[in-house]
Design brief:
The chain has 208 residues and is of the alpha+beta class. It has 2 domains: 107 residues, Glutaredoxin, CATH 3.40.30.10; 91 residues, 3-Layer(aba) Sandwich (Glutaredoxin), CATH 3.40.30. It is 35% helix and 25% strand. The strands form 4 sheets. It has a 4-stranded mixed sheet with strand order 4-1-5-6, with helices on one face. Strands 8-7-9-10 form a 4-stranded mixed sheet, sandwiched between helices. Helix 3 crosses helix 5 and helix 4 packs parallel to helix 6. The longest helix is centred in the first third of the chain and has 15 residues.
Length: 208
């Protein structure tokens, strides 16, 4: 999965910080919130978004003040993800950045392998885990309560499938990169369509 991520085109993040010059005007006093925003971006990329390819570009706002205007950006620090304004005028909220990058990344990258998005207090999630374990299917578990990245990724991937007005419940399950749905849908699949695949050392789904 890591290799597939690295092969993807990186998500573009652009920061305009309070710096630069325009004619006789020159920024002489650095912006504390711009410095905080740089720190938030760098730390979020190395922790919350580790493994997601991101290309960060930092520009001087006063030197290029007209460039972000068409997108609504006029007050540094201005942060844009894939050309969309997500924050300006204040130190960046890392959750806003994580959500924007995950949304952009999910649109261009499939979710290979077996995944279960859920939460500890959900009995249906526990039931779905049992189905997978009984069938001998290795999977990656994502706790959408404890990990914001997992929540944003689940929403970004499932909303286009079920519709943006449909409430999202857990669990949400992908098997072999294919969206399954919840525990009930998984139950129907594992009871009828799972057969051993010795070449991969785990079970895969195939037609009955």
């Amino acid at each position: 999965m890591q290799n597939k991520q690295n092969d993807q085109k990186p998500v573009g993040v652009l920061l305009y910080k309070w710096a630069g010059s325009w004619g006789p005007f020159r920024v002489k006093i650095p912006c504390g919130e711009c410095s905080l925003t740089v720190d938030v971006i760098n730390d979020t990329l190395t922790t919350d978004l580790a493994g997601v390819p991101v290309a960060l570009e930092i520009r001087e706002w006063l030197t290029e003040w007209w460039r972000p205007l068409p997108k609504g950006g006029w007050h540094a620090p201005i942060v844009m993800v894939e050309g969309r304004l997500i924050s300006q005028g204040n130190a960046l909220n890392r959750g806003v950045l994580t959500e924007a990058i995950i949304n952009a990344y999910a649109r261009r990258c499939e979710l290979p392998g077996n995944h279960l998005f859920g939460k500890e207090t959900c009995p249906h999630c526990v039931r779905a885990k049992g189905y997978l374990e009984e069938a001998g299917i290795d999977y990656e578990y994502h706790d959408v309560v404890k990990n914001p990245r997992d929540l944003y990724e689940m929403l970004a991937r499932v909303k286009p499938i079920i519709g943006h007005k449909t409430p999202v419940t857990v669990p949400q399950i992908w098997i072999e990169g294919r969206y399954v749905g919840g525990a009930d849908q998984l139950s129907e699949i594992v009871k009828n369509h799972v057969e051993p695949n010795p070449d991969r050392g785990k079970c895969s789904l195939s037609a009955a």
